[in-house]
Structure formats: structure tokens, C-alpha cells
Design brief:
415 residues; alpha/beta; Aspartate Aminotransferase, domain 2; seven-stranded mixed sheet; three-stranded antiparallel sheet
């Protein structure tokens, strides 16, 4: 049977395969510390759960508008006003079936066959695979600690070709946890205008931000931003409603609603109507129950829970970064956001020819720690890096560090 050739360009999502392998090992009795999947270990906050139950009890189980509940669109406009001092027309807010659904809509809206899209390498794999379905060509730009693992305007301009149509950046980023500085973000937006192209900013880890050095989150830390040279959202820099800027976001990460599958976009006014047509035909409408629950996620009681959890993630980050460095892993920059550490394998292992897939395979099979090889996130020095997610609690992180040390000793002995 013949399948579409585009499927050949899409590799398996290794993190999901690792999770499946880990669960099979658990079914056979192995204790596994899960540091592979980008999913908070906290369940959705109680106000969200209560709102979901109430929505079902009230019969809110039918279709909504393809653009989402008007109340949720307004609530998100209020969220930007209250937390980021951004005045936003709720008509520019589009509710989607998760952030992946949003990227599917934007790929259909913005990309023609043969168009080139610039992205950072390493980066979230779906951000390069979904555009393939629109016939686009993702162009990966190698980035490292010298640019804070981010695509910047200089790198983008150097890689620009006559077929380049736009850029996609993520801040905070997966897998590196890096955050774009204000000036770099502004320069990317200016480049998009100068090139008569567009900029897509993935902000799905918005809110999960921490100090640039190891240490506790300040008691007065504001939601969404810690450092003075950072912004909570690119919308603080680009206020023109017709600017070629698309912001992608989700209730999955900071709001802890992965399984509810609710995302959103902020788009230029001219893009709303064609996006509505696409959404109507792609998936009709986002989950009604999920949208009602998301309304509660933006309320004061739930926001207080989200902030408590952010502090817990910051403490975990501090311990994991320090522990990995003690074991010889390279972590040149402290991750400022999300819940990942993108660590370089110790030099002794790399010199012995041990790459990240081999290391992660043995770490899981022999020592009960699931972590993701860098090869899931791109090509640039990917086989020398491992992504550890600090989505396990502090006690489990301590267990993981002990087991990673044991794995290191086993590899060293074998050498």
C-alpha cells in the first residue's frame, strides 16, 4: 500500500516512544523516574476540575463557535491586560484545539508549497513537522549557548533566501528552557517587517520563568517575567494589530491542562476570518468542556495555584542543574523557563563514542530513569545532548540523580 511521501520525512516522536517503553518496564515491576515527557506532574488545579464538572452537569457538551467561546476570548484579553499591560481586542484571540491545532491552522494559513521557514536547532520537533503538511520546507538554524540557544535576527538574516517566508521562535523554548531577550525579540519582529514576511512566536511556556542564575524565585516575582531585559509576551513590543505577528499559546503547561487540549492564538485582525474558515473545516470547534474549564484556569484561585507550582518548578530546576553539573554534564546556561534542562553528555562518554540515544537507552533499561536524547530535537550536536524534564517532584529528582550517577559509573567501568 502506498502512503503519502510526506510521512517519510516525519520521524517518530522519541519522547513518546520512551514513555511507552518506560510504561512497559513499569508493568514488569521496574520503578521508573519519568524525566522524558513535557507534562507537569501536578494534576489540573481544583478550580479547573470543578469548572469541568460543572460544565458537564450544565450540559455544555455541544459545539461552540470555531473561534471559541466569546467569554474565553474576552477572559484572555483581560489576562493580557492584567498581567502584561497589553490592550488586546478579544476578536484577535482565537481558541484552538491545543497549540498543535493552532500550528496546523497557521501552517495552512501562511505557507505555500516550497516556502521556507526558519527555526532554531534544537527545537520542538512538531514545530518543524507540522509545516511539512502544507508543503513547506523547515530550515533549521544551528544555535548554541553563544546565542542562548535562540534564533536571532543576525542568524535569520544570514540564512534568509528568496524562498524564506517567515520565522518561528519559542520563548521559553523546548528543549533548552532559554528565553529570548527583549532586544532580540524586537529585532526579529523588525526583520519580519523589513522582509515583508511574518514572525510566529511560540509562547506556550509563558508564565514558567525563573531567575537567570540558580536561586529561589523572588517573593515579589511577577507572573510571566523575572529579568528586566525580558518581556512576558512579544505583544508588549508589537502593538500594531496589523503587524505580521502570530502568537501561539496553550493552557497545557503553566496552567497544567495538558489533557484538556485547549490552546489559543493572537493574530492580526485580517487573519481572523480565514482562520475561522480553516478551523470550521479542520475540527469544527475546540472542546466545549475544556473551554469552560479554561475560564476557571484564568481566575484568581487557580492563578494562585499556578504560581505556587511555578515556585516548585524553580526549586526543582535549581537542584537538577546543580546535580547534573556535579556529575560532569555540561549546562553552560541556566534555563530561565519551561521545565527542561538540555545537558551535554560528560566529556569522557563523548570521547568514548557514547551518544545520547545509547546513554538514554541504558539509563532507562538498566537504571530506571527515562530521559530524552537530543536527537529528538534537531540535528546540531543533538547526539551529544540529553533533555531532562523536571516534571518529577524533588524526592524523585534525588532518586534520579543517584541513578544517573550509577549509570555513569557503569559506563565508565565498561570503558
Amino acid at each position: 500500500m502506498q502512503f503519502a511521501r510526506r510521512t517519510d520525512a516525519i520521524r517518530a516522536f522519541q519522547v513518546m516512544e520512551l514513555m511507552d517503553r518506560a510504561r512497559r518496564l513499569e508493568a514488569r515491576g521496574m520503578d521508573v523516574v519519568h524525566m522524558e515527557v513535557g507534562e507537569p506532574d501536578f494534576i489540573s488545579a481544583d478550580p479547573i476540575l470543578e469548572a469541568g464538572r460543572a460544565a458537564i452537569a450544565a450540559g455544555h457538551t455541544g459545539y461552540t463557535s470555531a473561534l471559541g467561546l466569546p467569554a474565553l476570548r474576552q477572559a484572555l484579553a483581560d489576562y493580557y491586560r492584567d498581567h502584561h499591560a497589553v490592550a488586546l481586542d478579544p476578536q484577535r484571540v482565537v481558541i484552538t484545539a491545543g497549540a498543535s491545532g493552532a500550528l496546523m491552522l497557521l501552517s495552512a494559513l501562511l505557507l505555500e508549497s516550497g516556502d521556507e521557514l526558519l527555526l532554531a536547532d534544537p527545537g520542538y520537533p512538531c514545530n518543524r513537522y507540522i509545516p511539512l503538511f502544507a508543503g513547506a520546507v523547515p530550515r533549521l538554524v544551528a544555535v548554541g549557548p553563544e546565542t542562548a540557544y535562540q534564533l536571532n535576527a543576525d542568524l535569520a538574516a544570514a540564512r534568509w533566501s528568496e524562498r524564506t517566508c517567515g520565522m518561528l521562535v519559542a520563548t521559553p523554548a523546548n528543549p533548552t528552557g532559554s528565553v529570548l531577550a527583549r532586544d532580540d525579540l524586537a529585532a526579529l519582529a523588525e526583520l519580519a517587517v523589513a522582509k515583508q514576511s511574518w514572525l510566529l512566536v511560540d509562547e506556550i511556556y509563558q508564565g514558567l520563568v525563573y531567575p537567570a542564575e540558580l536561586g529561589a524565585l523572588p517573593a515579589d516575582a511577577k507572573h510571566g517575567v523575572v529579568a528586566a531585559d525580558r518581556v512576558g509576551t512579544v505583544l508588549q513590543l508589537v502593538t500594531d494589530p496589523d503587524a505580521p505577528l502570530f502568537v501561539l499559546n496553550s493552557f497545557s503547561k503553566y496552567f497544567g491542562m495538558t489533557g484538556w487540549r485547549i490552546g489559543w492564538m493572537v493574530v492580526p485582525e485580517s487573519a481572523v476570518t480565514p482562520l475561522e474558515r480553516l478551523a470550521q473545516n479542520f475540527y469544527i470547534a475546540p472542546s466545549s468542556i475544556g473551554q469552560h474549564a479554561a475560564l476557571a484556569a484564568l481566575g484568581g484561585p487557580a492563578m494562585a495555584v499556578h504560581e505556587q507550582r511555578r515556585r516548585a518548578f524553580c526549586d526543582r530546576r535549581n537542584r537538577l542543574v546543580a546535580g547534573l553539573r556535579e556529575l560532569g554534564f555540561g549546562v553552560p546556561l541556566v534555563p530561565e523557563g519551561a521545565f527542561y534542562v538540555y545537558a551535554e553528555l560528560p566529556e569522557a562518554l563523548r570521547q568514548a563514542g557514547i551518544d545520547s540515544p545509547a546513554f538514554c537507552g541504558q539509563l532507562l533499561e538498566q537504571h530506571g530513569v527515562a530521559a530524552t536524547p537530543g536527537t529528538d530535537f534537531g540535528e546540531y550536536r543533538a547526539d551529544a545532548h540529553v533533555r531532562f524534564a523536571y516534571t518529577a517532584d524533588m524526592e524523585r529528582i534525588e532518586v534520579a540523580l543517584e541513578r544517573i550517577a550509577a549509570a555513569m559509573a557503569a559506563f565508565t567501568y565498561a570503558l
